[in-house]
From TrEMBL:
Natural source organism: Streptomyces africanus
Keyword Signal: yes
Leader sequence segment: 1-27
Protein name according to UniProt: Sorbitol/mannitol transport system substrate-binding protein
PROSITE patterns tied to this protein: PROKAR_LIPOPROTEIN (PS51257)
Keyword Signal included in the entry's annotation: yes
InterPro entries listed in its UniProt record: Bact_solute-bd_prot1, SBP
Keyword tags: Signal
Amino acid sequence: MKRSRLARLAVAAMAVTGLILSGCGDADPPPGGSNGSINVLSVGNPPMQDLKKLTKKYFTAETGIEVNYTLLPENDVRRRMDREFARQAGHYDVASVSAYEVPIYSERGWLAPLDSYVKADKDFDQDDIFPNLVESLTGADGRLYAQPFYGEGSFLAYRKDLFRKEGLSMPANPTWEQVASLAAEIDGTDGTSGICLRGLPGWGQNLTPINTVVNTFGGAWYDMEWNARLTSPEFRKAVRFYVDLVREHGQPNADRMGFLEVLDAFVAGRCAMWYDATVLASSVEADGSAVKGKVGYVPAPHDRTEKAGWLWTWAWGIQKASDNKDAAWEFISWASSKEYQELVGREVGWTSAPAGNRKSLYSNPAYQQAAGAWYRQEYRAATDSADPKNPGVGPRPYTGIGFLGIPEFAVLGTAVSEQIAAAIAGQQSVDKALEKSQDLAQAAAAKYRGE
């Protein structure tokens, strides 16, 4: 690739970053909260929708604090959040930051540290939070910047009824090669796809599971000198494996299906296996699911590593520019509390309780009974995921399992995910997708190489 093209790629990446920070095309957010109200910006996942429904009756009635929610799809909320926090506009007091944003936002001074609030709020019981989530929400300065609303790992779900019908058995700790073999054998049984996997572009969509495959196959995005490694044999093998698996035994139109679409396909009974987030198990076992009671759960498949599951959390952080930090903490303390989990259990159902964040939930008999099909694997995923600091084979200059903990990854990862989605759609080869991605990754890390 010529140097001029590398330069153009770098300029394009910066242009996309500029759009994110400027919020081009987004409506202006609402005015900031007051002493009697706070504004909350959040991804619009089902647990957040339950939270919104319960807030007025239980939180506002007790505290007098009104909560104004802005719930958006994941890609939209990230764009809005990046703009809001970069400007420190103060329109939103609280936002649903993730394990990706917290290290970046805290280093840039965009989040308010929470240590003093935690110390003063004895009822919150910080020791009950899973330590690996606390670590992921702690800045480089050692201060805590967010509290987890829920946490998740990844696991493999499979149809026990179909496996019995075909005389197949699922290993207790499967490898990816075993999964591929099982997908080939069971594909088409009762009209199902052998396995359903995310194919939709997005660094939080198809690239999240793909990165776990890359890690366990021995691949890495960069070597220790920040030279891109997306065309290395290990990286190629991992991506080719994923693309071939979903093309040969996956669901139709996989390149247009993200985690919600794949979940819908599995719940409708169209998939024999499914690799995704533990937090989605409650939807699989919900009333109305065509596969309720028919599903088994095992750890994330692996290859060269012993563990391969990702670690993730949607957490509540306070914008540094907020004028309502005390009220914001009251909201966070309530929304991330044991008491709130119990409230959801009573009002919505224990299978909908935000999970993966507190140890105590897994010793709660009501949750154990309601989540009996999956809570053990959920607990294992929350406590025994791959190591975010060393998730694969050999050293790497970045942290993260399903993502890279660098600011450039939001743009780079999305661009690479689009190339891989095109390979899943059959529009180009895996080799061509990775050659283009290699150039993008090399350009994105130029500053780390001192260029």
